[in-house]
């Protein structure tokens, strides 16, 4: 029973990875999760300089999920290279670095810095606010998506994953733009923009007013978008958005995802990723399926 999958020439032992921002760089989870059992670890967003993040409160529970407005707080590329990468190199898993920035130059700086590091793929978070465009996310404008993809691809030594925002009218347009810019892989979806109000205090629950909605509540939207994109471009897809168990992961694979990322579920059950890997193995055995890849995009 083969669980190995291929993303732009990089072979993963299985299709299960962590979603950026929910797993740190694996250190916090290493006492619960055997990182060797995962297809890949996707790091928290890394910027060219340290980012302080948003003011608190910046996390809120909601029906079927959570809102976060952490603001991509991170210590910057220098600390990441000196502290986090040596830790990850100890494990037999692929390393995917999530890259964030406030301008194209910011992204390019991080990608150039990682060119000669032991990193397997780069996930470019284009849901970041573009400061030069008045704060609109890079990923909401197809023209911007194509431009930033092309610029990053020009300097990258590793294959590039463009992480698509669901906060658009037609996600296939941004997917096609990323493909035109030279993307190697697409990952989707990032969080949906949401809001929560405290009726007793009559104020916003999050200091940022809005936050990213993740968890089971967004899964049907995510599965639909993965299906649409899988049928619009010729690139491998990493599906994510509310995956809590093996059945959820299989939905994304059948919709067209070659691999899956688990995010919010890590907070409720740190062992979710390992349980999904084991569940996929059992599913293949039970259904006498030799290769997980035969399920990718099977539902048309």
Write the layout of secondary structure elements.
Elements: E1 5-7, E2 10-12, E3 16-18, E4 40-42, E5 59-62, E6 65-68, H1 77-88, E7 94-99, H2 104-113, E8 121-125, H3 142-155, E9 160-163, H4 171-180, E10 185-188, E11 192-195, E12 197-198, E13 203-204, E14 210-214, H5 219-230, E15 237-240, H6 246-255, E16 259-262, H7 265-268, H8 272-286
Parallel strand pairs: 3-16, 4-7, 7-8, 8-9, 9-10, 10-15, 15-16
Antiparallel strand pairs: 1-2, 5-6, 6-14, 11-14, 12-13
Which short descriptors sum up this protein?
300 residues, TIM Barrel, single chain
What can you tell me about this protein's structure?
- This protein has 300 residues and is an alpha/beta fold.
- It has one domain (5-53, 72-193, 215-295): Alpha-Beta Barrel (TIM Barrel).
- 29% of the residues lie in helices and 20% in strands.
- It has 8 helices and 16 strands.
- It has helices at 77-88, 104-113, 142-155, 171-180, 219-230, 246-255, 265-268, 272-286; strands at 5-7, 10-12, 16-18, 40-42, 59-62, 65-68, 94-99, 121-125, 160-163, 185-188, 192-195, 197-198, 203-204, 210-214, 237-240, 259-262.
- It has an 8-stranded parallel β-sheet with strand order 3-16-15-10-9-8-7-4. Strands 5-6-14-11 form a 4-stranded antiparallel β-sheet, with no helix packed on it.
- Helix 2 (104-113) runs parallel beside helix 3, helix 3 (142-155) runs parallel beside helix 4 (171-180) and helix 6 packs across helix 8.
- The radius of gyration is 18 Å and the shape is globular.
- The protein starts with a strand and ends in a 14-residue tail after the last helix.
- The mean pLDDT is 95.
